[in-house]
Design goal:
The chain is α+β, with helices and mostly antiparallel strands. The protein contains 4 helices and 5 strands, in the order ααβββββαα. It has helices at residues 2-17, 25-35, 81-89, 91-94; strands at 40-41, 50-52, 59-61, 67-71, 74-78.
Length: 96
């Protein structure tokens, strides 16, 4: 009986003092922004750099044969040649 009461007291103590700290929505969006790969760069990027396709949002690693466009001093990398074709139709839409 004594061990049962000790267990209950200990469990209630841990439950009360074991509060977790949750990030606010603003903190989590900042963390997501830090982790998300850029869609537009201000300079050419090296192979191995993480990027996000501005058309699909897919994250990928830039390779030697990655589709690329330069528009008004901005460098944009694409997950596939089809996305580059979409970009070429309306580059302003994707470089804002």
């Amino acid at each position: 009986m004594k061990s049962f009461i000790t267990t209950i007291v200990l469990a209630s103590f841990l439950g009360a003092s074991g509060a977790t700290v949750q990030a606010s929505p603003a903190d989590s969006s900042k963390a997501a922004a830090k982790q998300a790969a850029p869609k537009v760069f201000t300079s050419p990027q090296k192979e191995g750099t993480k990027a996000s396709c501005p058309i699909t949002g897919d994250e990928f690693t830039i390779a030697k044969d990655t589709a690329h466009a330069e528009y008004r001093g901005k460098h944009v990398y694409f997950c596939c040649a089809g996305c580059k074709k979409s970009f070429d139709k309306d580059p302003e839409k994707y470089t804002k």
